[in-house]
Recover the amino acids of this structure.
């Protein structure tokens, strides 16, 4: 069954169960559970997500497992570009908009193309990989395709965002107090990474990511990735085979975004 047909059938089935008292969130959850039930193949959770450590994580032994295309996700082209990942995997959600708004802020502030690109890519791992250490994951994803300064900055925004710098008008984010509590302390490796980064020649590039990060969550704004086409063309080495198929050391990470629910 193709994706459009699958989505139409799922929407109809879910809508049949909607009641007047359901909120948008209730309806979205109902649709999601209909979609999971409607899949011909079972999706297995990664082992490390199994918090109970019970069972063999194999699911229903009588059901085939998901391999390749997941009909719930948009189909990716055979030769995907960074822009395709933005549009089809990072989502038209707040996640992708956060990156786009952050890059726009940096561009409007007249910062260098390296800073703008670093802002554009700084949180791609939050949207596609395990969230932990997202700056390190993102840096690794882009390393073969960008100037070393860009991936260095993306890697170190992970640590620097926890430390204020009055020279850049950067304070500890209030949102972190809300998210992690008043008494949250970063682990020692983050402290050491921030100390190292502060003394580095590219410190400013990484710090600019933090500065342009804080104000890039405007639900009213809608920025398109096409605005950055020229900048990407000049600063991101798109492989001719497509991201995920160029045999680089990180190609498998991009392929995992194409087929995130494959069993193996
Ligand atoms: Fe981040
Ligand atoms: Fe961010």
């Amino acid at each position: 069954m193709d994706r459009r047909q699958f989505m139409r059938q799922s929407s109809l089935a879910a809508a049949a169960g909607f009641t007047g008292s359901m909120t948008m969130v209730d309806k979205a959850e109902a649709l999601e559970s209909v979609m999971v039930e409607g899949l011909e193949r079972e999706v297995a959770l990664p082992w490390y997500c199994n918090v109970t450590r019970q069972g063999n994580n194999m699911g229903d032994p009588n059901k085939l497992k998901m391999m390749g295309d997941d009909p719930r996700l948009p189909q990716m082209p055979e030769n995907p570009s960074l822009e395709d990942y933005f549009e089809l995997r990072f989502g038209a959600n707040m996640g992708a908009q956060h990156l786009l708004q952050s890059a726009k802020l940096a561009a409007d502030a007249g910062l260098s193309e390296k800073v703008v690109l670093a802002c554009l890519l700084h949180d791609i791992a939050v949207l596609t990989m395990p969230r932990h250490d997202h700056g390190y994951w993102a840096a690794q994803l882009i390393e073969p395709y960008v100037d070393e300064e860009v991936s260095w900055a993306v890697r170190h925004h992970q640590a620097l965002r926890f430390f204020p710098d009055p020279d850049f008008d950067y304070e500890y984010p209030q949102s972190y107090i809300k998210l992690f509590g008043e008494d949250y302390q970063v682990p020692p490796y983050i402290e050491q990474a921030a100390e190292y980064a502060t003394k580095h020649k590219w410190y400013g590039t990484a710090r600019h990511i933090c500065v342009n990060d804080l104000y890039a969550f405007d639900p009213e704004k809608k920025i398109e990735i096409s605005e950055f086409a020229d900048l990407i063309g000049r600063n991101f080495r798109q492989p001719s085979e497509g991201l995920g198929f160029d045999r680089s050391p990180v190609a498998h990470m991009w392929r995992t975004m194409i087929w995130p629910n494959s069993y193996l």
User: Anything to note?
Assistant: The chain has two domains: 3-38, 82-258.
